[in-house]
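job 3f2a | input accepted
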Amino acid sequence: MDDHDTSYRLLFSHAEMVRDLLTGFVPEEWVAELDLDSLEKMNGSYVSDDLRSRHSDAIWRVRWGHDWIYIYLLLEFQSTVDRFMAVRILSYTGLLYQDLIRRQELDDTRELPPVFPIVLYNGEARWRAPTCVSQLAQPGPAALAEYQPDQAFLLIDEGAFDMDRLAPLNNLVAALFRLEHHRSLAEVPEVLGLLINWLDKPEQEGLRRGFVEWLRRRLRHWAPGANLPEIHDLQEARDMARDTVQEWKDQHHQTGLRQGLEQGLEQGSTNEARAILRRQLARRFGGVPSEVNDRLEGASRGELENWIDRLYDAATLDEVFQ
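job 3f2a | predicted structure (322 res):
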C-alpha cells in the first residue's frame, strides 16, 4: 500500500466522507431511510480460521430503522482492473460475518446483518470486469443453481463521471473526485476553495488534516519537477496551486502555444496555427467537438490569437470560446 492509498483511506475514515459518498453516489431510494448520524466505524482487520491476516479498507455500520446495515467500503487503487474483484468481495464479506459471530455482535435474533459492498475505483482505465460472482462462474446443471454464490458489489468508477456535472454538488466526495481527475492544474484552486469553506468548523480539523495529507502526495504527482513548498493546511495548498499555475503560465505561455501560433502566422500560414491550436485543445480537453472544429476552420488570425490567450486560464472548453 503506497502513501497515496494510505492517505485516501484516511479520508474515508471520517463519517462525513462516507455520508457524502452514500448520498451523492449511491442511486438507491433506501439510502434516504438511513440514519446517517448513526454512522459508526467498525474494526477492519480480520484473521481467518487458517490464521492468515486479512485487511479491509473501511467497514462502517449505519442504522436502518431499528436494524444495522454494514457498509463494506473497499478502496481500490489498482492500475489495472481486477477481473475477480467480486470473488474478493465474497471472501471479505464472509470474513466480516465470521468476525461478527466470533465477537458475539449479532442481535437477539442471531441473524446476520445485511452488508452493502462498494468498490471505489480510481484507476486510469474504465472498469470492465464483472461486478457479480455469478458472472464469473461457468454454467452448470440447473439443479445446482441454488447452491452457487451470487455476491455482487456496487462499483463507483471515479473517472467515469462527468466532472462538470459534479461541480455544482455541495459534496465532499464530489470535490475529491474533481481533484483526483482534474483536467488542468488551474481547476485545483477553485475546488480547494470550496473545501476551505465547507470544512471551517473546529470539529472538522481531522478531516482537514486528511485532505492535506492526501494533497501533499498528489500535488507532487500533478506538478512533477516543480519546487513545491511544504503545506500545512488547505489555504496553503490553494495558494501553492495558484502560484504553480501562474509560474507555468509565465514560463510556457510565450514559448509554448503562442510561440507556435506566431511562427505559423509569421510564415503566412493560418492553417498551421489553426492545427497547433487544435492539437493543444485536444490535449487539454480530451478532444475537439465537431462544432468547435467548424469554428476553428472559419477563424481569422485575430480570433486564433484571442483563443490562445484564453486557453491557459480556461477551466472548460466553452470558456476558451466565450
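job 3f2a | The chain has three domains: 3-163, 182-251, 254-320.
job 3f2a | closed
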